[in-house]
Every structure is written in structure tokens, then in C-alpha cells.
Amino acid sequence: MARTPWRSRPSWRPRPAAVVRSLAAGLALAVPLSLLGGCDDGKDEPFMFGGPTSGPKAAPGQPVTVYPRGPRARFAVAGEVEDGTRIGVATLRGRKSGFTGKVWVWAPPQYFDPAYAHSGFPVLEALPGGHGYPVNYWMGTDLGLQSGISRWSREGKSLPFIVVMPVLNPDFDHYYDGSDIPGQPRMGTWVAEDVPDFVRANFRTFASRDGWAFMGSSSGGFVGLKSVLQHPDRFKAVIASGPDTVPDSPLWRGHEAARRANDPGRLASRLVRRPDTPANDVYLAFQLGSRETGIAPDVRRFIHRYTKGPVKTRLQVIPDGGHNARTYIRGLEAGSIAWISHWLQPPVPDRRASWRRESWRRES
């Protein structure tokens, strides 16, 4: 399928550097104080996101929808968005990782449109910075991620993503680099396997990696970046905001081979040796606030060194921006969310239904 330029389409952790560093990062990311008091299981009656569990097979050349295969989770309401949609929270017992943690999920208004009842939706796994435990701060409506995607999808800046927001770490004591560190909870398997399996169990998704992406800030940016490079057969794109570019949890001590296997640079160097084909391409959107002078040189070196072959990159520098989530939301609207949306699969309407052309529909 030919790709047309996005804007021409129809409108439709303590990181081991120092304890001071981790404290500064946590404060800079401006996690609302209301989120630090513990993990609320939600409010009101439990609900399910609903929708059909089977449907017609995809026509030749059309993306394959994966219908919810269960077990279906019962979500508690964790928040409400301006457009009337709800953020749900559930407890996931990861069958592959063995880790149990909270997962927050939001589905966009288009997900409930009858015209798209038999279409998959692209998934954006959003990872926080700071400790990422006991909550994922992207679940809070104050940062505006969900309301932003709802609005941007109407304006043609974004696909209507399902946003899934798991806890990033198993405790408040360490960062685990979103990895399976020997002898520790298997957080790499949690992020890259258990959480996507949970989404597939409850939502209509796409079989192809074209429907799967990450976004993350700070340590969450590192994990999203590493996960895409480590599993390019499962995930196609990431928005990595103010990320670390090397695994540096103190828990790697004594496990150098495993640490190297989770190093984004080593993963990228291996990927750039593959043929530059659509099957191998990954899309790495980096974001930096203009005032992030400490981390910017590492990010720029990474981009300069590994942007070749199937590794495609973009850098969004956010004017007067710091190392915080609110800065990165501005960067999403300024271009990052549109760039990765260009390379991912939009939902496909049922042509037999009565529907109006949405601003985010892609032309072939």
C-alpha cells in the first residue's frame, strides 16, 4: 500500500547514576500528588469495554482484525475524559512473566462507532518516568493524553489509539529497565508480552505489528525504545521522550551478558544490518525539551549513529521544554504523534455501514 504524506491526506528508576538524579527526574516529571497516595482500584460499578468477539474475515489486502479472545477483564472506572469515554483499571496476573500489577486502558470514541465494530484499532502502550509504581501517571486525565488523542484524531494529527498504561516497575525501590534481569521480576516479559496479550484479550486489535507502538518518558522512554528494537516483529514504532539510551539499573550487576542483550545501541546496530524493507523498518520518534541539556547529547549521538537502513528516526525539540510529561505532551501535538501515525495501521470502516469519512482515515 502506497504511503501518502500525512498532511496531504484527506481531513479525516533509581537510575544508578545517583540518587539525586532519580529524585530530580521524579520531581521534573511532575506527577500529580494525588497519584502518590496509593493505587485506587477505581470507582463506580465494574464495566467491560464490550463489542463483538467475532466477525467477517478480512478481504485480501486488508488488515486482519484480532477479536477479543478472553478472558475478558472487568474494569473499574479510574477516570472520565471530556469526550465521555472512560479510563478503566484492572489487575493483570501475567501468565508469562509471573508478575501481577495494575493496567489502565482507554479506548477512543471511534472504537464504539458501529461503523468500526469489526475493525481492529492501533494500540499505544504508554510508559511513565519516575518510579512507574504503584501507578502509571499517564492514566491521570490532568496530563491530557487521552483527551489529546481524542481531539488530535478528529483534527487529522493522530490515529485513534487504544492507550494501555501498565505499571512499569514492581516496587518503589528500583528501576528494572523494563527487562528480564536474572533473579528479578520479569518486567521485560510483562511489558512486551503479558500487557499486549491482555489488550488482545479485551479489545479488537490488529494481527500485524503495524498496529502496535510504544510511547514513554524518561525511563519509560528507554523501555519503549528498547522494546521496539528488541521485538521489531511485534512493535513498529515508539515515541521516546527524554529517554536514557543505555540500561543502567544497579540490578544488572553480575549479569553483563543479559545487560548487553537489553542495550538499545546494540539492538539497533544489529537491526541496521538487515535489509531496508517494509518488513524490517522501525520508526523511532525522539522528543527533547530545549532545556534538557544533560541528556540531549546522548540522544543526538544515538540518532546520528543508528539512523540508517531500516531504522528511521525523527527528533522533536520542544521550545522552552524541560524533562517533564507536560513538555512531552506539547511535543506530541507539535508533530511526533502525527509522524508515527503515518506509519501505523488505522481502523478500517465497514463500507456496508452508514458512515461519514473520518479525518484520520488513510487513503491507499
Account of the 3D structure:
It is built from eight helices and twelve strands. It has helices at 19-28, 145-155, 187-202, 219-230, 256-260, 264-271, 296-306, 325-343; strands at 43-47, 65-66, 75-80, 86-93, 100-106, 123-127, 162-166, 205-206, 212-217, 237-241, 282-289, 311-318. The strands form two sheets. It has a ten-stranded mixed sheet, sandwiched between helices. Strands 2-8 form a two-stranded antiparallel sheet. The chain is globular. Residues 1-28, 30-40 and 354-364 have low confidence and may be disordered.
Number of strands: 12
Q: In sequence order, what are the helices and strands, one letter per element?
A: HEEEEEEHEHEEHEHHEHEH
Oligomer: single chain
State the end-to-end distance. 6 Å
- Strand fraction: 15-25%
Report the sheet with the most strands, covering strand number, pairing sense and barrel closure.
Answer: 10 strands, mixed
Basic shape: globular
Give the number of helices: 8
Helix content: 25-40%
Quick structural gist:
By secondary structure, the chain is an alpha/beta fold. It is built from 8 helices and 12 strands. A hairpin with a 5-residue loop joins strand 3 (75-80) and strand 4.
Q: In terms of topology, how is this protein built?
A:
Blueprint: H1 19-28, E1 43-47, E2 65-66, E3 75-80, E4 86-93, E5 100-106, E6 123-127, H2 145-155, E7 162-166, H3 187-202, E8 205-206, E9 212-217, H4 219-230, E10 237-241, H5 256-260, H6 264-271, E11 282-289, H7 296-306, E12 311-318, H8 325-343
Parallel strand pairs: 6-7, 6-9, 9-10, 10-11, 11-12
Antiparallel strand pairs: 1-3, 2-8, 3-4, 4-5, 5-7
Helix pairs in contact: 4-6
